[in-house]
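Data availability excerpt. The first of two example chains:
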Amino acid sequence: MKAIISFLLSVMLYISSFAQFGIQESLFLEQLKDQELVSIIVKGDIKKIKETCISMNVNLKYAYQDLAAIQIEKEKLGAFYESIGQGKIEIPLGKATTLMDTALIHNNISPVHNGLSPLLQAYTGKGVVVGILDSGIYFEHDDFKNADGTTRIRYIWDQNENTPSNPPAPYNFGQEWTWQDINNGACNHVEPANQYGHGTTVAGAACGNGLATGTNTGVAPDCDIIAVAVDYYDNNFLSNTVDAVDYVFKKADALGKPCVINTSYGSYYGSHDAKDFASQLIDALIEERAGRVLVASCGNGNNIDNTNSSFKETHLSYPLSSDTNFTWFETMTNGTLYFDLWADTSDFKQAHFSIGNNNDTNFVDNGNLDFMTVNSFLGNLSQGVYLTDFVYNDQADEQGKVEMYLEETEGRYHLEFLITPSRTQDNWRLMLTGSGNFDLWSSRAYQGTADMINSGLPPNFVLPEIDFYKLPDNQKCIVSNWQCSDKVISVGNFANRSAYYDVDSVYRDLNLTPGEIYYKSSEGPTRDNRMKPDISATGNIIFASGNLDFIASALAINRPKVAPGSMHNYNGGTSMSSPIVAGAVALYLEANPTAWWYEVEAALKQTALRDTFTGPIENNVYGYGKLNAFELLKYQAILGCTDDTMFNYNANANVNDGTCLPFIYGCTDTFSLNFNLLANTDDGTCIPIVYGCMDTLALNYNPSANTDDGSCEYPIDTVSIKDIQENNLFNIHPNPSQGKLIIEVNPDRLAKVLSAKILDLNGRLIKEYDIKSSKQSLNINALSAGVYIVGLIENGTMIDQQKLIKE
């Protein structure tokens, strides 16, 4: 996260021109020149978006489903937004942090490398691409070479290179090198020194072959490697990450190989629900085809430093009530306060909130804003609405300016606060009442935002309202964005070893219990309460291939960091547990190259080890349990619908492939009159088709028929039902009749010689009546039950007829 800066007049003028962007996005844009490129993700009508990109000469890098990744000059943003109609733009912001032998034993990998029964062969990741998205890679390390000295790395893309000679298309930034460049000595990629070889050790854990010393072999020692060096500290790191995922998957497709990507970094800033556009686009890339999997560290935010009493918890959430609860925030080093909250729209419509000020020494209430609701923000919330107000004390002295931005997006409210206080030493309180719930993450260390106060609170006899104070906690401390996706395998970290021998053969006690979750390993659930992590693996500590430049400096000043042989160093955290799982996925893809992400995820979960540490059921600490690679490779996936409430439930299936169909009741007999094409379950309502003549005036009318077969026959001079109804020269009633029939004739016809004939359906005369008045009663008791024709006769000619049913 970039440091939060105060709003200046120019910033506010800029925001008014681009009101669709929030506080953070607007502050970021304000720092750019008009011609500078901005990476954005757009959601909407892809055809319209593509047409707009062409007409405005904007670089559309790629599009999947209803999402497009775009590079655009800042000065074009306003016109672009207007041109795409109903589309929505996100500028993915935030800065990442890295999330950092015996591991082969603890994760049950050695039997897979050895091909123990019932496996039919040894699996080492051969024929699989492992993508390492990290700080870079020390490509000259022997662990990344074949026995003949050629490289195992197929591509390196350094996104940090500012003066590239070969930027990969369509991304158009950074430098790309191929395996030919590496083998020919034409690659000059250097992993940044300030990352201490993080990317190299991650790659070593997943892919190292141990060739350098014969030890510290990674999980998939025969895989192909594609490395992308991501700039963690760039505000575009989310867009750059999506680009990197797209890049690696496309390179693997070109090689004709399945691929697993590892990401051992992330940001704690965001909604923690994977509904941001960057995460949705990563989901779309994973779903694009079989043989694509992404593994991610879940983070190290559970307890940043359990030895430091000044540690500030990062998360705040509680159910709202009629009480007015509050939490204090501290002013940041730049003299402002920034924090934001997220809530499902259904959970925040009845929430009332305010911002207030307290003296930090005597806790005097210096005033607060009037309480607001989401309805206080007038305008289109889907485009975002700003609101600015000031806090005054009882003497009408200004205490500070409060700027707020509310946006409704993806079924959520995102509410941002930026406070510019008159006195930086005061505490500022967020107050909430009403009903509903919310989640808020804020930490100066992890998000660059205001710390919440968790200690030094006054007793209630000094401040009675302190009884309603809500303390922050460390729940839901998983990193945000793609790590929270159901389609991404998020990994926790348990202790790998209790001690080790360093490069000088000195025994180093780590004070860890192997198998126990590491105290910093982030816990779930996600903001919307889905379980994370998915699985756990060894993280603290692991020896893996080291950046030899870093090892050279460590040998001078930090020798305990270096392993015997001086080619490997230790690393820890979920940064190292994640590549262990990614390597295991590579082994699975070697055996099952056409497996979809959901098969791999199900296999990992269903074969995970549960012990006294994990407990008997899945949870938000260990996930489904600990990685068990041998059982993973023995797993026989049976795809199908695993939901026993669905129509096509497959009792033998162990992997839900998304094909479940709900029960739809109706007639399923294709030969029935009421056959329902959508129905999959017959409900006994089928009506047999009965063919026959359905014209009631036809001689062969069949009252049982429900499907006309075109067989109707008519007596001479008869007309169709439609014609009879249109002529309407006489009427009969009641019809059906039990014995008495009334016939009504137009009085104008009485001057003619009239009679009424009753005929059977074969045209035979049954009875004839003279008609003497315009309304006359006819006795038809003698007629048998059935269908007859009543004809009106004028001067010997039948001029009209109607059907009669005798009961």
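And the second chain:
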Amino acid sequence: MDIKVTDETEVVTKFPYDDLLNLGRVDLNNINRCLLVLLEISKSELFYENLKNVSTTVEFALSHLAVFDDMFQKEIFVHFLTLLSRIISKLASENKLNQILKNVDKIFEIMFYVSDLNIFCDFCVKISEPIFLETLKITKTVKESMEKPIVGILENFKRSSASNEFSIICDTILQRFPLDCNAFYLCSYWLMEDSLIILKSLNLKEESIESQNKIVILLRTIHTFYTKVVRNGISHAFKLEKVFREFFNELKTLTATFLHLCRYQITEKEAKTILIIIILEFLTQESNISYKIENQVREEVQNFDRDVRYWWRKFSHSFFFICHLLYANNRVFWPAGEIFQAMVRLIYTKKYKKTITICLLKSICYIYPLVYIYAPTPRRGLLGDDLLNIILPDYVGFLERIFTLTTAQLLWFLDRASDKFKKLIVTYWLKNSITEEGLDFLKKNMISSGSVNILIDVMVGCENSDVMKRTLELVNAIQTPSLVRSLYDIAPKFIHDQNIFPFLITALSRHDPPNKSTSLVLLKALGTLLISLEDEQTSITVCRFARSLMEGHKSEKCEVQFLCNDVVLIRVLISRAGRVGEDLVVEILRFLRKILKYQAMVIVNSNDTTPLKISIFLKKSKYVAEKALDLLCEIINHSGVIVIDHEDVLNILYSLFDLSEEASLSAKCHLCVTGLIKLYPALLDYPTMSTYIEDICFYSTRKKHSAVTLKLILIWIKFTASDRNRISLILPKEEILRNYFLRYNSLNKNLVNRNLYLISQIYSRDKAPRNTL
């Protein structure tokens, strides 16, 4: 191709553009000559007047880049990219690019191809950035076929060190692409990952102008990303929702960095923009804010001077919001004295005091105790008192929105506030601090500040069952004498509250009531409560507490007969005992025994008695069986509201035989068998009874000899000898019975002789042959 260069106009007009498309990829000399001329032509305004020639030139560059490989000269590669970049940038500035690049898919595919080449270096990224960027800008719809090459280009650009250009491209994608496409996802992820690293490693004093410009681009991209996501609404459909939240939480910890960036002319505007975003995000997270507050924050921050050191001098709500944000992230920027001066101006200047909002007061009440800790003085203490006694009373109905779960604020209120405000902040903590650590902290500080009785005020006015439960947990943990006395005073108020009273009883059960009248009121309530109570652990506590209260009326048993004769209660307890855990079974059995003991002297109508199949408890663990034996002894010895189920007598007898093998239970078992014989003499007719008596006598030694065992033997002999009609009774061996008495020299001789005589009478009663074992 013959190219003779004279003046610019002639070169532009005479250049053989149509021949460009005929150049083969191996004709490197002519390609290089053409490129050098075209690079000069592309600088001329005249060139862009003929869009056909421009289009041909672009097609020439694209066609050769599409087949370029690492074998060719890098210089030619760079020339092609430079030519294409220059033309596209110029067309974009004149809004003519969409007339030339009608197939953006092809551009993205070619750019993906060339960015994958080994010769594609960081310098090539900088040259190519306008090509990719301007093509993205004219892309109206992101097709599925575009996503792969675009993502590929981004990944290849990301590997380079041209961070500035990459940030600009990301900004464009974040502006134009939908949230659900892969390109947006990648740019979002990289932005959130890289920006935190860059911002955390900033050394502003050493940053050059160029570095500051890069930071500006980064901050703009963050702003673009935030605006795009928030405008579209953050939902679970956004794959990076959680990361997005975490990212902006991390940015909040960098508030001091953005404040420093506000001091530099280059970065001031973008830094303030991000600072506004962070403040508004923080305030939204802390409480609902109005558009008025949003606009106020934007206006105040933008109007701050560049020297952030003196922002405290200018009255603004945003200054306190920023301080709140800093302290919430364990950062300090302004000295405590300057923050105090800003507070003094706010509270003691009439026109400024009128501007106080709930949102501002929340920040003030958060900041004050923290700042006071660092710089306590009497004057500053008075400022806090005025906040508590003059400012806050006008906002009593909004304290839920003003309080925060901070230790410094809690200590401040418990130490300096009135009982009314102490009650409100303790209630707030009980409602919102649901962790064990938070409740433990509340407990310790209430004790140290002498404010434990505030819990009683909380309970009296509480309508929230969860708060009441946590209050009682706290009361159980504290248990001071004055607190317990107060609990007994308010207990009658909650008798009919099935949600609260069980928890209150748990707190009271560790202490004796102050007087008998209170005890009787509680006993009546406990009886009613046990009928409907389902929770096993609470039922255990209530049973124990009821027994403890009854113990206080040991000398005046008539006072508790309303409980002892409560047939419904007794039947409910018996029914529940058969289907609950062993711990509760034991407590029910012990409570029923206490009822029988205290009701022993009262005549009971037979229609009001309740039969009990006690054998089911005798067959349970030793722990349960022991308490069942105690109850059985009480039932046998006293005619009360609980009686033995007649159908259960034999089962009881056999269970007693089995349990008597336990050394620790044998005495109780013998006592119960003795009682059963008295109640049901017909039991003597059962062969197992004779076997049982024989075994007791045979295996009895001096060591095992006891009054209970002797009483059983004597009762058996007495009842057997007294019934002359028992001619078919299967008896123990006579010599074993005789030896039992002859073996012990310590027994009264008259007793021995009498029973030996009765034994001989039993075995010689009828001349007919006797069945013996």
